[in-house]
Write a structure and sequence with these properties.
single chain; about 270 residues; alpha/beta; Purple Acid Phosphatase, chain A, domain 2; 6-stranded mixed beta sheet; globular; binds fe (ii) ion
Length: about 270
Amino acid sequence: MDVPHKALIFTDMHITRAGETIIGLDPLARFEEALAHALARHPDAAQILLLGDLTHTGAPEEYARLTSALRDCPLPVAATMGNHDLPKPFAAAFRNDVDEHGFAQAALDLGPLRILLLDTFDYDGKAKLGHDGWLCDLRLAWLEAELARAATEARDVVVACHHPPCPTGFWAMDAIGLANGDALLRRLRSSPQVKHLICGHIHRTIMASADGLPVSILKSTCHQMPMMLGGGTSADSVDEPGAYGILLSLNGAIVLHSEDFALSTGDISRYA
Ligand SMILES: [Fe+2]
């Protein structure tokens, strides 16, 4: 068995200004707990991905608190935008993650695996509902070019982005999903290199398939979506354990774990 290539994925941290909480929870404290938990247990990880909604309102102070929490992180960090982020403060805080067009997307190698971090923020107000996502022609063209490059290099691809392109059963969240998700899925399904799609946004652990493509949605590190399928609003939240993802490229397989960090002390017992 080969040693796995490993990436740690955090999404929907919703960092607030100092002294502010979300349903009584401190998002920065929760993220710091998640990061410390992940780094202590996975020192062999090679990459950290942040899948959007890094902050709650996009305020520069919120990004400053997040970058401060990441200052001593020993791993490279790649971040993309969520609907709670704002482009200018994001770009100021994560300038290395923004390309020449202003999009927070990147092609990253995890051993033999290519990760395409895709920016689904609605920069042009195309989607109309304010919190839904949109992929413009420039970003879809970038995706097509990267998929063609992965094909020439015979690399498997995992795509990671904030907004899921498929329904989840949470109607209020589905209403603010990726508004042109069909355009994304059409491109992903046309490439045999694409093996898995990983998203955030819903604040719930969800396994799905979209037009036959496996899709995994990770929990927030902070507040979660209550299990109220078909009801509620996008702002409904519940204090359940936060989680982070552990992505493995292992002997040709792609594996994604969801770890509820607040539930695990790390103490291991063995039953008789
Ligand atoms: Fe979120």
